[in-house]
From TrEMBL:
Boundaries of every Ketoreductase domain copy: 16-189
Ranges in a coiled coil: none
InterPro entries documented for this protein: KR_dom (IPR057326), NAD(P)-bd_dom_sf (IPR036291), Sc_DH/Rdtase_CS (IPR020904), SDR_fam (IPR002347)
Protein name according to UniProt: SDR family oxidoreductase
SMART domains: PKS_KR
Any one Pfam family match given in the protein's UniProt record, by short name: adh_short_C2
Family: Belongs to the short-chain dehydrogenases/reductases (SDR) family.
Species per Swiss-Prot/TrEMBL record: Micromonospora sonneratiae
């Protein structure tokens, strides 16, 4: 769990309500904590009720956080979460599509089609579904911001997780298309991290962290808080004239010739 902290932007998101998917741990939880630190209230989702409840407690309890368990690509779960966000906190201003999956590792020539479909359903179609259901519930009445969590694997081939990168490349294009369609009331942007130290990405660095980090100009792997800071910026009024962009948060990896992962 993350610990509460102070930021110079305390109050920047005062009065805002955000939905953050896949936020019982890792990057999603860090985003939710950063939003709360900046004055927002959050509704978080996750597949398992117990870890989700623990995350709500860690974030400060029901005054600032509410959890809705379910699968990110389930339309009924999406609709229920949006309804609970507006019912619990009275409005919805920010949507962060953080939930993602990558159930396979290996070359594309051996990729199971069922696994490929699941990756696209969660990482790309799931994100679209969340936006559709939020808009159907009046999202954007006060102005809104969507931030999609992409990956640098969308920008260059990544051995072993190539189809994950394909799904995130599609997410980047979806981000740009939605930005055009939903302007001017709703801004839509994405953040593309490199390897961040989470359980989700552990296979990419466990047992060789120093070796992997050596390929990054800034000399370290990412932390969930690094991504959370970028997401908070894009969700805030400070990014009021930014839409349709994918912000790379990678410690400089993509300006080198090193491979992702």
């Amino acid at each position: 769990m993350t610990a509460k902290s102070e930021h110079p932007n305390v109050g920047r998101l005062a009065g805002r309500v955000a939905v953050v998917t896949g936020a019982s741990r890792g990057i999603g939880l860090a985003i939710a904590q950063r939003f709360i630190d900046e004055g927002a209230r959050v509704v978080i989702t996750g597949r398992k009720p117990a870890p989700l409840a623990e995350a709500v407690t860690a974030l400060g309890g029901p005054a600032v956080a509410h959890g809705v368990p379910g699968a990110a690509d389930d339309p009924e779960h999406q609709a229920r979460t949006i309804a609970e966000a507006t019912g619990t906190f009275g409005r919805l201003d920010i949507l962060v599509n953080n939930a993602g999956t990558n159930p396979v590792y290996g070359p594309l020539t051996g990729l199971d089609p069922g696994a490929a479909r699941k990756i696209m359903e969660v990482n790309t179609l799931g994100a679209l579904g969340w936006v559709q259901r939020a808009c159907a519930a009046g999202f954007g009445e006060h102005g809104g911001a969507v931030v999609n969590i992409s990956s640098v694997s969308a920008l260059r081939p990544a051995a072993g997780i190539a189809f994950y990168g394909v799904s995130k490349a599609a997410l980047n294009q979806l981000t740009a298309a939605l930005a055009v369609e939903l302007a001017p009331r709703i801004r839509v942007n994405a953040v593309a991290p490199a390897v961040v130290k989470t359980r989700f990405a552990a296979a990419l660095y466990t047992g060789r962290e120093a070796e992997v980090a050596a390929g990054y100009p800034l000399g370290r792997l990412g932390e969930p808080a690094d991504v959370a800071a970028a997401v908070a910026f894009l969700a805030s009024p400070d990014a009021a004239w930014i839409t349709g962009q994918t912000l790379i948060v990678d410690g400089g990896l993509t300006i080198t010739d090193r491979a992702v992962g």
